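The authors assume throughout that readers already know how a fold can be written as C-alpha cells. What matters is that the chain and its backbone geometry are given together, residue for residue. A single example would do more here than another paragraph of explanation. For illustration, here is how one protein appears when written out as sequence plus C-alpha cells.
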Amino acid sequence: MTAAALLASSRAVLLDFDGPITPLMPAPANMHAADVGRAALAGYEATVEPIAATSDHLAVIRWTGVHVPKALAAVEAACTAAEVEAAETCEPTPGSDELIRSLHRRGTPVVIVTNNAAEAVDTYLTRWNLTESVLRIVGRPVHRPDLMKPHPHTIEEALRTLRVPPGRAVLVGDSVTDVEVARTAHVPCIGYAKNPRRGKELREAGAEALTDTIAAIVPVDGP
C-alpha cells in the first residue's frame, strides 16, 4: 500500500512535529537549545562532559533526568523557551499545513505526538491558523523525560483521546524512533524520508510505507 493510500484509509492521523510539520530545530537553533539547557545546569555541580558537545537538547533533558534530577525543571524550562522561540519563526514543511487542513475538512482527527514541548507546538499552530484543525497536542511529559518517545506514552495518550483501535490510526514520522514507537503501540507508520539514506533506515526499522514529501500524502478532497 502506498503512503497516500495508507493515510487515506486511516480513521485518525498522528503527526510528529519536528520534521513532518515543520523543521523546528535546524542549525544553529538546535545547538542554541542544547546550549541553554546545559547553561541551566550551572550551579548544580554537574559534570556535563557526556552532553558537552551534543546539539540535541532532548539528549540534554534525558541526561539531566537521570543524572541531575534536581536540575530537571530548570533545564526543561530553558529548553522549552528555546523551542517556543524557534516556533515563532519556523516555516511549514511543504504540504504540512494543507495536510492538516485537508484531514480536518474530511473529518479525520489529527493529534500531534512529539518530544517537543506542547507550548512550542501551540505557538506554531497559532501562527499558521491551524489550531482548530488539530484535536490535541501530546507533547513532552513535564518532568518525565523517561516517557518521551520511543516510550509509547504519547501514542497511547493520543489513542485514548481518539478512541480508535491502534490499527485504524497511522503515525507520520521522520525518525527511526517514530517507527519503533509505532510498532510498540501497534500503529502503522508512514516514514517521511527526506533522502534515500533516511528512507532505507525507516524501511529497515519497519515503516509500512514511505514518502519523500509531505505534499504527496495530502488527501484529495472530493467534489
The CA atoms of residues 4 and 194 lie 16 Å apart. The chain is about 45% helix and 10% strand. The chain has two domains: 3-24+91-217, 28-88.
